[in-house]
Design a protein that fits this description.
The protein is of the alpha+beta class. It has a domain of about 100 residues: Elongation Factor Tu (Ef-tu), domain 3 (Beta Barrel), CATH 2.40.30.100. Helices cover about 30% and strands about 30% of the residues. The chain contains five helices and six strands, in the order H-E-E-H-E-E-E-H-E-H-H. It has a six-stranded antiparallel barrel. It is globular and about 50 Å long. The N and C termini lie far apart (about 45 Å). The N terminus and C terminus are likely disordered.
Length: about 150
């Protein structure tokens, strides 16, 4: 089998796939002040991609949406910001119960008011570029882990 045959059989977009919720317990940790949870191998293996995956989830029953990131070791991690930690009553060193579900769409980034005003006043071609790149902007982690409904 050559490389082209492998590429042709690989799915190009599995973000909207219907998958069972992934439930697990994991310890919260921090790296440079950023709260995160490394997914257990068994949880990471249930995701449809070794790369970024948009998810809806809960930490101790508190809903959020984010993008699960690859950890470079064939696993994943998820950012758990301070607002979500406080809502869930957990912090670094605590073990938390998480549930993740693959989201059909990537979360959109929070747009500061001054940027939103500049985009509104910009030529249509600039707004078109913004519309094309915002799913990746949200996917790169700039959106963080936002409680649902706070866009």
């Amino acid at each position: 089998m050559d490389l082209m045959e492998v590429v042709e059989v690989m799915p190009t977009d599995s973000r909207g796939a219907e998958l069972a919720p992934i439930r697990f317990e994991a310890e919260l940790s921090t790296i440079d002040g950023t709260g995160l949870v490394r997914l257990p191998v068994s949880a990471s293996e249930q995701l449809p991609s070794r790369g970024q995956v948009a998810v809806h989830g809960t930490v101790e029953g508190h809903p959020f949406e984010t993008v699960v990131e690859p950890d470079g070791r064939r696993g994943h991690w998820v950012r758990v910001d301070r607002v979500l930690q406080q809502a869930a009553g957990v912090g670094p060193g605590d073990t938390a119960e998480l549930t993740l579900e693959v989201a059909p769409h990537w979360p959109e980034p929070e747009v500061p008011e001054d940027l939103a005003a500049a985009l509104a006043a910009a030529p249509a071609r600039i707004r078109d570029v913004w519309d094309d790149i915002t799913p990746m902007a949200g996917g790169s982690g700039s959106a963080g882990s936002r409680p649902r409904g706070t866009r």
